[in-house]
């Protein structure tokens, strides 16, 4: 199966220094490459213990590119609202060349009010900035003498160098959470999709995925040609009770950091983020056991996790888990064990989709999983 590693730093300097977090994330990226995982993804966020260690995904992924051989690199995701399209297009094109075409580009609207305030960007313009920024970047990658007269940026004529290694451009993913318009728009444009299940019910998320797939079909894109990545927390151990006990501590810390980052600004209620306050409140109420029951996290023994993976595939269809394995202050040894056990005892149970990326990843997994020993439990 296609499965990736998703780095969303949720640590403060008091818990882990930046250098420790990056050293550990690079260690895990190298191991993921050896074990046959399909991708490494990292977010763009600022200022807070919730995501703040990753203001520039391109920098981290460039470091991963020099230390790995085949794993794909995903910006998960860049934020057009906070970046000039010329700068963003140039950075990503460099990374695509440095990695010899291993880049997948994810874009997101962003949702933390404090970030919008710091960049002096009105949250109610986020959707328009998001869509205009993506269109400008794609135009810069695919045309010469580009003239852009948008609502938020004007430039040209310019011809971007370097060209992207992948032509006409790297695969594009759109991050969507709970707004139907975001899922429909992503599908209508033929983009791939990134989503997270634990912010809502499985039924609601499945309905949003149906909207996305229908919009792709209505726009003329072939059925099954999409790639859908699912962000999900993962903690695997040979002892299921120990896995649940340790994961619960780190997950509670993750949710607390996320909620506290948003809650300071809830009274502003940006019009384009209706429902986010309820989403945060709902996340605070969900226990890890409830999430496990709905297969909205992967936690337990390899046998437990195989059942959870099967449940998500049944509900959501063909999706690629993109797993947070070092959320909050998870020790490196636990994250490594999760990667090793999942590769050795979970991935082989699920056939990969019939496409080139999947075939390459599956072949690497079969070889690597047999050669890398599983870290002993502690």
Provide a descriptive summary of the structure in words.
The chain is of the alpha/beta class. It has a single domain (4-371), classed as Alpha-Beta Barrel (TIM Barrel), CATH 3.20.20.30. The protein is built from 13 helices and eleven strands. α6 links the parallel β7 and β8 (192-195). Residues 357-378 have low confidence and may be disordered. Keywords: Monooxygenase, Oxidoreductase.
Q: Using the 3D structure, state the CATH architecture.
A: Alpha-Beta Barrel
Task: Count structural domains.
Answer: 1
N-end to C-end Cα span? 28 Å
The pLDDT mean sits at 88
Count of helix runs? 13
Structural class, by secondary structure, is alpha/beta
CATH third-level topology? TIM Barrel
Estimate what percentage of residues fall within beta strands: 5-15%
CATH superfamily: Luciferase-like domain
Return the string of H and E elements: EHEHEHEHHEEEHEHEHHHEHEHH
What is the overall silhouette?
A: globular
| CATH class descriptor name | Alpha Beta
Question: Strand order of the main beta sheet, please?
Answer: 1-2-3-4-7-8-9-11
- Gyration radius, rounded: 20 Å
Residues in helix, %: 40-55%
| Weakly predicted, low-confidence segments | 357-378
Instruction: Tally the beta strands.
Output: 11
Biggest β-sheet strands, sense, barrel: 8 strands, parallel, barrel
């Amino acid at each position: 199966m296609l499965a990736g590693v998703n780095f969303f730093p949720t640590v403060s300097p008091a818990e882990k220094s930046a250098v420790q977090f990056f050293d550990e994330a690079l260690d895990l990226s190298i191991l993921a490459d050896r074990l046959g995982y399909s991708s490494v993804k990292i977010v763009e966020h600022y200022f807070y213990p919730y995501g703040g260690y990753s203001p520039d995904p391109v920098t981290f992924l460039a470091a991963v590119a020099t230390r790995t051989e085949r794993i794909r690199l995903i910006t998960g995701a860049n934020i057009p609202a906070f970046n000039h399209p010329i700068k963003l297009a140039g950075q990503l094109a460099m990374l695509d060349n440095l990695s010899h075409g291993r880049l997948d580009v994810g874009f997101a609207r962003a949702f933390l009010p404090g970030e919008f305030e710091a960049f002096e960007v009105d949250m109610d313009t986020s959707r328009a900035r998001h869509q205009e920024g993506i269109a400008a970047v794609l135009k810069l990658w695919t045309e010469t003498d580009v003239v852009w007269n948008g609502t938020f940026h004007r430039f040209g004529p310019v011809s971007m160098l370097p060209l992207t290694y992948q032509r006409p451009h790297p695969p594009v993913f759109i991050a969507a959470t709970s707004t139907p318009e975001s899922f429909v728009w992503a599908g209508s444009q033929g983009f791939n999709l990134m989503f997270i299940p634990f912010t809502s019910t499985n039924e609601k998320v499945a309905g949003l995925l149906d909207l996305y797939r229908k919009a792709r079909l209505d726009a003329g894109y072939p059925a099954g040609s999409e790639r859908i990545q699912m962000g999900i927390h993962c903690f695997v151990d040979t002892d299921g009770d120990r896995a649940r006990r340790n994961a619960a501590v780190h997950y509670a810390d993750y949710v607390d950091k996320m909620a506290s980052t948003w809650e300071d600004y809830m009274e502003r209620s940006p019009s384009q983020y209706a429902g986010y306050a309820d989403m945060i409140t709902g996340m605070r109420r969900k226990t890890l056991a409830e999430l496990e029951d709905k297969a909205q996290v992967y936690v337990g023994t390899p046998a437990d996790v195989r059942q959870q993976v099967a449940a998500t595939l049944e509900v959501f269809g063909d999706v690629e888990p993109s797993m947070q394995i070092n959320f909050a202050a998870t020790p490196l040894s636990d994250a490594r064990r999760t990667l090793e056990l999942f590769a050795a005892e979970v991935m082989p149970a699920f056939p990969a989709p019939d496409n080139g990326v999947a075939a390459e990843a599956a072949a690497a997994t079969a070889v690597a999983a047999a050669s890398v020993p599983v870290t002993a439990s502690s």
